[in-house]
Amino acid sequence: MWNAENVFDYPADPPPRPPWLTPVAIIGVALAVIALVVSAVALVGRPATSSSVTSTVAAPPSLITQVSTVTMPPPPPAPPQTNTVVVPVPVPSPQRPPQPVPVATSCQLLRNQANTDYSVTRLQVTGYWVPQLSSKQPGLVADGITWDCDSIWSEHVQLRSAYNANLMWSGDFPHTYGHDDYWVSYAAYTFDTAEGARQWCVDHGRDVPEHCYPTQIR
Fold first, then answer.
1. How does DSSP assign 32-98, residue by residue?
2. How far apart are CA 183 and CA 169, in angstroms?
3. pLDDT digits (tens, 9 = 90+) for 18-33
4. For residue 121, what are the CA distances in angstroms to 7, 22, 59, 130, 210?
5. Residue 97 pLDDT greater than 70, yes or no
6. Predicted model pTM
7. CA pair distance 159, 76, nearest whole angstrom
8. What's the average model confidence in pLDDT over 41-58?
9. What pLDDT band is residue 55 in, cutting at 50, 70 and 90?
10. Where along the chain do its domains lie?
11. Given the DSSP bridges, would you call strands 213-216 and 141-142 parallel, antiparallel or unpaired?
């Protein structure tokens, strides 16, 4: 049973809240939480110092206070124009091939040598005795040889080298020889007598009169 004498003094009931207050409070709390989450995500990508995060504000661009005038050098002069003249290459005209020089025959060599020695014989030997070493004509048979220009020229070259021989054509000295078609080789040593020329032949081992004979040039 309750005692009616114990009467408790309860606080009075709070005044009733407006019916729209509770949804507003819930929305405000939700907005606050979303703001905190966004701030945390933004701070993750920025470098942080030991105490706080410092935001960097870009400095405003500086103003140009002075304008400098730059003088550009004048452009280089254009190179002078040159005209190239193409000279056509002359086409060589066909030339005649060189002709071979004819080789002198032995007969021509004998005639040329007799002409060369003629002045020596005429000026220095005429009137003297000389050792005649050879007297040959083409077709002559002697010493087992049928002589021709080749063999006569070859013999004269040998005598010229061994005895300083000169060459005569008998037809150039008709007062000395009775035949005018002989090539005569003689040693270029003059003597006042026939005996002196004969002795030269003996001293040089030449057979007298077959291969060495005293002859007076007239």
1. HHHHHHHHHHHHHTS---SS------PPPPPPP---PPPPPPPPPPPPPP-PPP-PPPPPPPP-PPP
2. 5
3. 554 555 556 665 676 5
4. 198, 168, 128, 11, 23
5. no
6. 0.54
7. 88
8. 46
9. very low
10. 106-216
11. unpaired
